[in-house]
Design brief:
- With 436 residues, the chain is mainly alpha-helical.
- The chain has one domain (2-435).
- It has helices spanning 2-17, 22-37, 40-46, 49-67, 70-81, 85-100, 105-123, 128-140, 150-159, 183-201, 221-237, 241-247, 255-275, 279-287, 290-308, 311-322, 327-342, 347-365, 370-383, 392-403, 410-435, and strands at residues 168-173, 176-181.
- Strands 1-2 form a two-stranded antiparallel ribbon.
- The longest helix is centred in the C-terminal third of the chain and has 26 residues, at 410-435.
- The two termini are 36 Å apart.
- The relative contact order is 0.16.
């Protein structure tokens, strides 16, 4: 376990120091963890192929979306409706947050970031901080609904909650009905606080935006594919797990990936037939960011390796020991430790491990564990905003910027990530303690 922890720390230090080589560093580390702690089969299974397929498919659809000039038209509309660049950036970030409450965070970033980049090109501004703001706000809203993030799904499954419980929380504790404010409203208040932070960060971007002639869009199929993807992802989230298993016996967990890849294939077939050549196929495949896909796949294997080595279990046991007998201390440790941990590792295995710990803590303290579940969700979901590698949406956003020729250092990312994370978590931390 000690060796695994040392390798893990070195890996993440290198990822932060050498952003240009993150994918190759992560791949090398994944190979080491695979050899030392995993079999080839378990390493392959550790990769969240649903996420990889979904991101790959979305990247392809977004490439068609950009080629259709729709992002340029949306940028023109934002320019018309906002007084300056500051409000345009914040409007885009809030738009990303709203979408992300119902669609995967990565898909949201891949959809909205091109609009911000187009807007910045029209105004001669750097797109780095605007794209980071979009990624951060999409991560924040991931905790708002059951379908917003994988951590929300884990939380709901463990606590026995459904979609509506995120709006009005109803459950029984010791056979007594309990009603509380749902997580959705807590996250919205955190979003309001984060919005003020963004307004402060972009306070100098106060120059009026020069209005220009609207871009004309003649091809709406990519927009239809993108909107269709959003709708289908939402609908898929309501399909019972048992039904999915019957429909897809061996690959029910890949439904989102199938949706995104399926729509991309439909779009490519349409354009190949329409243009009577394969140029669009080659152009679209070139736009997929394989660097980011390799980085994410490698990170999944790394996390599986440290989990197998017992690092995450040891962390959980440590929290359980030092918080004995004090609910406020246990709650505080879970929230803020989750923020720190999720800033550096994928929060899915961490949350899956910590939910049983929260249950055990509730039993030992003889209290309703729902407050610990909620604190874990807030800390782990929002904590991903702390660093550029803390959440898949951050990695995707930085990947988009890299393709545009902008390398993002950890220091640059944290100009947005740290203040937004701290303010949003503090709001959530206080509200959950008061309300729960």
């Amino acid at each position: 376990m000690v060796v695994a922890l040392i390798i893990f720390i070195i890996t993440y230090a290198l990822l932060l120091i050498f952003p240009k080589y993150r994918a190759y560093i992560a791949l090398a580390s994944a190979i080491v963890f695979g050899i030392m702690y995993l079999t080839f089969k378990s390493a392959f299974a550790a990769i969240e192929w649903n996420v990889i397929l979904m991101i790959g498919g979305t990247m392809g659809i977004v490439a068609l979306f950009i080629a259709s000039k729709m992002p340029s038209l949306l940028a023109d509309l934002i320019i018309e409706k906002t007084p300056n660049m500051k409000w345009a950036i914040v409007a885009l970030a809030l738009f990303a947050g709203i979408i992300s409450a119902f669609v995967d965070n990565v898909a949201t970033v891949l959809m909205v970031a091109p609009i911000a980049i187009t807007l910045c090109k029209k105004t001669g501004k750097s797109p780095v901080l605007p794209v980071i703001a979009i990624a951060v706000m999409s991560n924040l809203e991931g905790a708002a609904t059951l379908v917003g993030d994988t951590t929300s799904i884990l939380y709901a499954q463990h606590a026995g909650l459904d979609f509506l419980d995120f709006f009005v929380l109803r459950y029984d504790y010791l056979s007594v009905p309990v009603t509380r404010v749902g997580m959705f409203w807590i996250v919205q208040l955190a979003l309001v606080a984060a919005t003020f932070v963004l307004l402060w960060i972009f306070r100098k971007e106060s120059d009026p935006i020069e209005k220009d002639k609207r871009t004309e869009v003649t091809d709406y199929l990519p927009t239809v594919l993108l909107v269709g993807m959003v709708v289908l992802l939402i609908l898929a989230s309501f399909i019972p797990k048992e039904t999915l298993i019957k429909l897809l016996p061996n690959t029910s967990g890949l439904i989102n990936g199938y949706i995104c890849m399926g729509l991309l294939i439909i779009g490519l077939i349409y354009y190949v037939i329409k243009n009577k050549n394969f140029k669009v196929l080659g152009d679209t495949l070139k736009e997929i960011d394989y660097f980011t896909l390799l980085l994410l796949a490698s990170l999944f294997v790394i996390i599986a390796g440290i989990t197998e080595a017992g690092v995450i279990d040891a962390i959980s046991d440590f929290i359980s020991r030092i918080s004995q007998g004090n609910l406020f201390l246990a709650y505080t440790i879970i929230v803020w430790f989750s923020v720190i941990i999720s800033g550096f590792i994928d929060n899915i295995p961490y949350v899956a491990t910590m939910l049983p710990v929260a249950t055990a803590l509730g039993v030992s303290l003889n209290v309703d564990p729902m407050i610990l579940y909620a604190g874990l969700l807030i800390g782990s979901t929002l904590g991903g905003n702390l660093t550029p590698i803390g959440a898949s949406a951050n990695v995707a956003g930085i990947g988009i910027l890299r393709k545009e020729g902008h390398e993002v250092s950890a220091k640059t990312y944290m100009k947005v990530g740290i203040p937004v994370t701290l303010v949003a978590v503090i709001v959530g931390y206080i509200l959950i303690w008061i309300l729960y």
